Amino acid sequence: MDNFTDPHTGVFYNKLGITDALELEQATKDASLRRLQELAAGYGPQGDTFDARRLRAVHHHLFQDTFEWAGQTRREAGFQGVKAADLPGMERPMHFAPFERIDERLNAVGEQLKQENNLKGLPTPEAFAERAAYYFDHYNHVHAFREGNGRTLQATFAEIAYQAGYQVDFNREHEKLNPARDQGIVGLHGAGHKDWDLQALRDLFARNTTPLPGPDAEAARHPGQARPLADGPTPAVRQIEQLRELVAAAPAMQQLVAGVDYRRNQRADALLTQVLDIDRDPQGGLAQHGAALQQLVQEVKQDKRFQDPDSQREAARFGAALTAMQPPVPAKVVAAAPAQYPTSPQPAGTAAFVQAAKQVVEGLEEQGYPGPADSLLRAAKAVEKSAYLGGANLQAVAEALTRAEKIPALAEDAANLRSAGRSLQEAQRALGPATEPASRAAEGPER
After folding, report:
1. Which mean pLDDT values do the consecutive 10-residue runs of the chain (447 residues) have?
2. Region (Disordered) spans which residues (predicted)?
3. Which of 187, 328, 401, 434 sits CB 3.0–4.6 Å from 248 for a disulfide?
């Protein structure tokens, strides 16, 4: 839901009572231009901290004449949104930072910028442009506001440049700014090649950045002021970059998964949902979806239809992005014994559990939750084969129940599945440890 927009007119809620989109756009442009000139003259938010509070203040100053919600981020109204990239001949969605994480990410980027002394000590426009493009891309990816992100960032970076002894003229090649910044968000080239994605933005900064005259500006540019990041990005920004890479790698992986999906696009659609869950909650999302996503990567890599270099590269990129998000593995690893499934009779309740699971699978599919349905079906098949409910299979059951129990039409089926699962686990405990597969690697959801 877009709580910034009047549902009756399709126009942003505004102080002026305007109900025509083009009229509001022009009025907003005129008013914000006057306020932008005030900021350039030194009237407005001041200081050397460029965090969430600072960007809110800049946005409020620019749009205070037009919007009641000036200075409010997408978080206040719970607005996520997806925008198409402004790149000729390319259809790629741009997923911005989760609205729940806006302040956290702005503060993380602002803190790292401060550690780098707000880009002071960079002696040439090219040196300034390289780091300015990097930070502009990070702030832009957060995309904190429903409207006015471009003007807010231009005002912010004009001030950052001024404090660093430079002037940036965003009007000189204004029509090239949106495509350049969108390339950074889409991230076609992947981890290790981010410089390629930022090349257009970096060149734009370099062409339109000039040194300011005067002793203060010269002092700001003096190399003695430089504070390069000796160890690379801070831990907080490094995690942001890892999450961005995972989200950027998802569209190509979606296409590959759709090619091996016997249920057409259900698992491909679920993949994006799972990736965005991880983006919102890295620890919880990885615990819930990480193993299933890695298994999808292996399926695609091994599928004979996708042995061409491009497909293998995209699958490897997505897999590497997932692996980068995983916590370090302890150094001491004990080799697992080969899988040995029980030869004794299945625990009582196995058939009842499988039947109950299939009922919930059907219900979830009908209600539009193909991801949990598919995971539950694979878990049920694995339990039917191994007679063991635990590990990744138990996790898939829990995920499906979380969804199903919120849907009144599935309440009874969900209760039956929960009861059947408990009965099966009690039967497993009664039979003893022999019912558990010796190798957890062999126990995961069956394909």
Report:
1. 85 95 96 94 92 97 96 88 73 86 97 98 96 97 95 97 96 90 85 84 96 97 95 95 93 81 68 93 93 91 89 92 77 46 56 90 84 82 76 74 82 86 74 44 37
2. 209-233, 417-447
3. 187
